[in-house]
Amino acid sequence: MGGFLRTLKAFTLHADTTLDEVLDDTGQKIKFGGMVDFDVRAPDRLRVEVSSDRKQRQFFYDGKTITLYGQRVKYYASVPAPPTIREMF
Fold first, then answer.
1. Widest pairwise Cα distance in the chain
2. CB of 38 within 8 A of CB of 65?
3. What pLDDT, on the 0 to 100 scale, is given for residue 6?
4. Within 13 Å of residue 68, how many CA atoms lie on the same side as its CB?
5. Residue pair 35/51 in contact by the 8 Å Cβ criterion
6. Could you tell me if 42 and 10 are in contact, meaning their C-beta atoms sit under 8 angstroms apart?
7. Distance (Å, rounded) from C-alpha 84 to C-alpha 74?
8. Residue 67's pLDDT is what?
């Protein structure tokens, strides 16, 4: 799938996620649900939204900077980034 996605100029991808965590003190398993949405325009545009029971984050990449935004915690950060998605990752 990764090879095919690299051939596309633009695509969106949605994933529903689950994470099982085992509590140290009781051994009880807790399941967290979430979703991830990717909007990609190669080679230098990316938007990712992560939303789960535990956190909400957005990532924006414009070929010059990558920015993280956490709405619930009212936090954002930006750092310089390489000119392509591949180099950025």
1. 49
2. no
3. 84
4. 11
5. yes
6. yes
7. 28
8. 98
